[in-house]
């Protein structure tokens, strides 16, 4: 159990523990103020009642308060009763972790710390425990007030200690800012005033340091008639003389930061940790990622750890042969040159403990590597921090790739550099984020872009990034030439490359969102691509990471890709590389398509998902080149994966683009299949116009090429798309055609798919035996094929069958299996549907809370993927639960939002349910006229589908709205007969409606 007194009184066991009653809290505060010491009962009574009249039996009342405190602590944590013990002559808090004790322990450790950095770190931790004034709220309790004053004195002493430690580390700017508030609060503390004056002086604020002394002297004379002590007076004189002893001894040539380092707090901690573990740490990364700034900042934090200093050697101006390397390092370190340069340098540094920062090593890695290797071997106290676009390749080298800034940190940097007139707000945040993403989070590119904000604004700036190399010019005049424009940054890495490496690099630019090694070899080939890729990765021009499918992927930052596209055009190689690209991805899509119906389904879905951007780029390029056959084959190969992943909008748009672009004399078999895909996906996406006519036209297109198997597939797919919508007999006919065609072709997957659809149709019309027979057969076939999507469809029907029979545990098990398979495959629209199905089972079982949770999760997933069918299913489930718990307004709100949609998509089963529920709501409100109208329309919709459960529900609702008891009774009787003949008993969740209606009829006189 933990107690907090460095601020308002706090008790925690992991969660905050409430201590009721002011007297009990005061008792606890007094015991904590005497940590581990017995407090006499008399002292406790005085503290608890102070000047107020004590109770008639103070000892007994105190004992009662102690019991309350014990119960509170015991309830919060088992065994806590032993914390408050009775010991003559009173009580003691014998155990527990108190933050004041931790604070004092840290202060003691800081006093014994070996160096200023350790001391400052421990004091930071100690002072971080304070949440406000000690024992806040108990200022009127005498013994607590004494302890609070003692702790406050320790706190101020710790503030002074920390300030002196930071001053020793050269952090005078930070100390000057932090101490201002403390000095204002305690103006007569001379030690505090002295360290603040030193910090002000070292920060170049001599006048403020002198004014601070004058202020103290005036206060002492006015209030106490005293003068400042001799130490402070001597400091005042030293400041007046500008005594050199007040200055920090120079131990580094690191440049002072002109701007704050933004967004790199985590990276800075990581670099410092790695540097503490390694004698050679090389920060690698692409140009403009901020390697130099991060290295300088990290080195500046550790100056005090190196008695012989931290020294920066800037190598960008060095010739590629590195002939002047040793003289350059020697000059920075103030050493005489030697006839044997590296040996002489190593000898001169032999006994030194220092950090050498070697910046921009990429063009001289060989000479730098050789020098560093010798120095590390012969100078044991030396550490090296290097920055380079490629590793030095030295034994013992540890690499740390500097990552680009993630969007939130990139936005922070962009805003900081855009100038004081710019502020992030709701109107520009989206554009700023887009700029940061498109510039890959590279700090240099962001800073160059930020300089254009005043002239262009962020919206226009974002729009012009396609021409980024002209746009991002004119960096700071003081910056090296290679950092003044974005093009120069990339030129610095590109120019030293041999031509074969340049060729692979520029060809990589046709890939969208990276590529696999296989793709790089096929598209960028003409030699050993792997070795060239490895060199480009080493030079930070290509980024290598593991893709979601587990394969390594190679990608270019967007700015590098834009640069390489220009170079590809200059080489006259763009169109040829684009052709290679779209032919490779067509081959990949056609290899993947049949595997999406096998046990390899998950792997190939993941691979296609990873390659989505490349597939879109390939389709764009094929259409642009007029390669209509390639475009048709590509959309035909991809449509099944789009459908499985619920990306109906993308599929529909791609198919429409291709069908609108291909010539009339294109391959008729390819055209027929693409039109079938388009028609089915449009129907799945909610387009209900002329379903039957479109179906006939699509199927007729297969007659010309004589593609019997294609016709069978199209019949099944269109039946699948129309299931639950339109004429059930028409859908049955399509499934029959598909089954016969698949059987004739020996297509096991097709037979399983047709059986699955046939089972779902049988379930809808109430033929439970047929649904079970076809469903089980389809499940066996899909299981043998390893197609979990197919199993998912069959378990859906078998789960609904179990629901209809009232076997809710079995139904939940089927739907839970389906949910697991959908999640494993990443089929998130199917996940939404399975969550909705589990919600229906919970609803039927009477668990409205669980039903709501499942339906809300389903609705959220469906909305994220713009899947209206799944969203409809989930929100109707929320309406069902709301109506059953009596929240009629909430239920009606959900239902009314879907009436027009159900009518628009010819959704008779869905429409029947929505109208039935609206009718029940009207009836419960006493509006029998509206209820009758709604139930009559719902009954007509239900009969049109032939779904017995929908008909029974509509008849039950109608019975509740009819005035004539005899007619209502006949309606209930018919509903019961339909449920009995279908083997679908009345669910308990719906029995309340029937019982309510039956009860009303029993009390209504016959006409």
UniProtKB/TrEMBL annotation:
Entry-linked InterPro entries: BTAD, HTH_77, OmpR/PhoB-type_DNA-bd, P-loop_NTPase, Sig_transdc_resp-reg_C-effctor, TPR-like_helical_dom_sf, WH-like_DNA-bd_sf
**Would the keyword DNA-binding be found if you checked this record's keyword annotation?**
yes
Mind listing where the DNA-binding region sits, in residue ranges? 1-95
- Ranges for domain OmpR/PhoB-type: 1-95
Is Lipid metabolism found in the keyword set?
A: no
Q: Which SUPFAM superfamilies does its entry note?
A: C-terminal effector domain of the bipartite response regulators, P-loop containing nucleoside triphosphate hydrolases, TPR-like
Record keywords, A-Z:
DNA-binding
Matches recorded under PROSITE patterns:
OMPR_PHOB (PS51755)
CDD domains for the chain: BTAD
The record's family statement is: Belongs to the AfsR/DnrI/RedD regulatory family.
- What protein am I looking at? BTAD domain-containing putative transcriptional regulator
Q: Which organism is it from?
A: Actinomadura vinacea
* Organism ancestry: Bacteria, Bacillati, Actinomycetota, Actinomycetes, Streptosporangiales
């Amino acid at each position: 159990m933990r107690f907090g007194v460095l601020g308002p009184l706090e008790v925690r066991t992991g969660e905050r523990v409430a201590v009721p009653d002011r007297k009990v809290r005061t008792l606890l505060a007094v015991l904590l103020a005497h940590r581990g010491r017995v407090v006499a009962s008399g002292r406790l009574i005085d503290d608890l009642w102070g000047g107020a009249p004590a109770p008639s039996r103070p000892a007994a009342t105190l004992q009662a308060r102690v019991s309350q405190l014990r119960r509170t602590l015991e309830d919060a944590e088992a065994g806590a009763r032993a914390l408050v013990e009775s010991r003559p002559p009173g009580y003691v808090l014998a155990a527990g972790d108190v933050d004041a004790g931790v604070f004092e322990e840290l202060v003691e450790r800081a006093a014994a710390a070996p160096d200023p950095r350790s001391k400052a770190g421990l004091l930071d931790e100690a002072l971080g425990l304070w949440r406000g004034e000690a024992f806040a709220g108990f200022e009127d309790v005498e013994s607590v007030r004494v302890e609070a004053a003692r702790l406050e004195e320790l706190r101020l002493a710790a503030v002074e200690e920390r300030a002196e430690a930071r001053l020793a580390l050269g952090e005078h700017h930070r100390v000057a800012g932090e101490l201002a508030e403390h000095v204002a609060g305690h103006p007569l503390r001379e030690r505090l005033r002295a360290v603040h004056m030193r910090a002000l002086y070292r920060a170049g604020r001599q006048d403020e340091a002198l004014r601070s002394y004058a202020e103290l002297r005036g206060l002492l004379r006015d209030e106490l008639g005293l003068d400042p002590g001799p130490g402070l007076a001597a400091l005042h004189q030293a400041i007046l003389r500008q005594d050199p002893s007040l200055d920090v001894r120079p131990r580094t040539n690191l440049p002072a930061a002109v701007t704050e380092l933004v967004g790199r707090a985590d990276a800075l901690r990581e670099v410092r940790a790695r540097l503490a573990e390694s004698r050679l740490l090389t920060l690698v990364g692409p140009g403009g990622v901020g390697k130099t700034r991060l290295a300088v900042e990290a080195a500046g934090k550790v100056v005090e750890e190196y008695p012989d200093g931290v020294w920066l050697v800037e190598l960008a101006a060095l010739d590629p042969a590195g002939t002047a390397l040793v003289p350059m390092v020697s000059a920075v370190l103030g050493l005489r040159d030697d006839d044997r340069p590296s040996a002489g340098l190593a000898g001169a540094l032999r006994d030194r403990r220092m950090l050498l920062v070697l910046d921009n090593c990429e063009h001289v890695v060989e000479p730098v590597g050789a020098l560093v290797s010798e120095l590390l071997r012969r100078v044991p106290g030396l550490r090296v921090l290097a920055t380079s676009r490629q590793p030095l390749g030295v034994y013992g080298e540890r690499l740390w790739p500097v990552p680009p800034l993630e969007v939130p940190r990139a936005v922070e940097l962009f805003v900081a550099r855009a100038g004081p007139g710019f502020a992030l707000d709701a109107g520009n945040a989206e554009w700023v984020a887009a700029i940061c993403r498109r510039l890959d989070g590279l700090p240099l590119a962001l800073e160059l872009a930020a300089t254009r904000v005043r002239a262009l604004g962020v919206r226009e700036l974002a729009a012009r990034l396609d021409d980024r190399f002209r746009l991002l010019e004119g960096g700071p005049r003081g910056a090296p030439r290679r950092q003044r424009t974005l093009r120069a940054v990339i030129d610095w890495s590109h120019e030293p490359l041999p031509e074969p490496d340049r060729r692979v690099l520029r060809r990589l630019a046709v890939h969208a969102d990276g590529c696999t090694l296989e793709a790089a070899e096929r598209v960028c080939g003409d030699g050993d691509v792997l070795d060239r890729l490895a060199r480009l990765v080493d030079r930070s021009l290509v980024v290598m990471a593991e893709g979601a499918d587990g394969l390594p992927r190679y990608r270019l930052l967007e700015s590098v890709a834009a640069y390489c596209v220009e170079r590809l055009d200059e080489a006259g190689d763009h169109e040829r590389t684009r052709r290679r690209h779209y032919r490779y991805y067509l081959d990949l899509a056609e290899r993947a398509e049949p595997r999406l119906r096998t046990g390899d389904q998950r792997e190939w879905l993941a691979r296609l998902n990873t390659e989505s951007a490349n597939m879109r780029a390939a389709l764009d390029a094929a259409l642009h080149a007029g390669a209509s056959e390639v475009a048709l084959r590509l959309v035909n190969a991809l449509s099944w994966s789009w459908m499985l992943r619920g990306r109906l909008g993308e599929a529909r748009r791609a198919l429409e683009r291709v069908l609108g672009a291909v010539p009339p004399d294109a391959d008729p078999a390819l055209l027929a299949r693409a039109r079938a895909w388009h028609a089915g996906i449009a129907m799945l996406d909610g387009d209900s116009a002329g379903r039957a006519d479109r179906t006939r036209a699509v199927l007729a297109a297969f007659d010309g090429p004589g593609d019997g198997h294609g016709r069978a597939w199209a019949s099944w797919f269109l039946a699948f798309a129309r299931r639950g919508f339109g004429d059930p007999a028409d859908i049955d006919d399509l499934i029959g055609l598909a089954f016969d065609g698949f059987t004739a072709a020996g297509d096991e997957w097709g037979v399983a798919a047709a059986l699955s659809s046939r089972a779902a149709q049988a379930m809808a019309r109430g033929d439970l035996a047929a649904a079970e027979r076809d469903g089980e057969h389809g499940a066996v076939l899909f299981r043998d094929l390893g197609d979990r999507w197919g199993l998912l469809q069959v378990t859906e029907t078998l789960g609904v069958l179990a629901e209809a029979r009232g076997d809710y545990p079995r139904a939940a098990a089927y739907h839970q299996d389906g949910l697991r398979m959908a999640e494993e495959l990443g089929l998130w629209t199917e996940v939404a549907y399975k969550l909705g199905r589990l919600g229906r089972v919970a609803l039927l079982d009477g668990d409205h809370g669980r039903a709501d949770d499942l339906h809300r999760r389903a609705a959220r997933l469906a909305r994220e993927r713009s899947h209206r069918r799944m969203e409809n299913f989930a929100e109707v489930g929320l309406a069902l639960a709301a109506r059953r718990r009596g929240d009629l307004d909430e239920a009606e709100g959900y239902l009314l939002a879907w009436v027009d949609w159900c009518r628009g998509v010819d959704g008779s089963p869905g429409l029947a349910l929505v109208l039935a529920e609206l009718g029940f709501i009207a009836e419960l409100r006493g509006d029998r006229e509206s209820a009758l109208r709604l139930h009559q329309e719902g009954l007509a919709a239900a009969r049109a589908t032939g779904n017995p459960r929908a008909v029974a529900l509509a008849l039950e609702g109608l019975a509740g709205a009819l005035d004539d008891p005899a007619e209502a009774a006949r309606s209930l009787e018919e509903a019961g007969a339909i449920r009995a003949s279908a083997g679908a008993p009345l669910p308990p969740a719906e029995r309340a409606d029937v019982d309510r209606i039956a009860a009303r009829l029993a009390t209504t006189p016959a006409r």
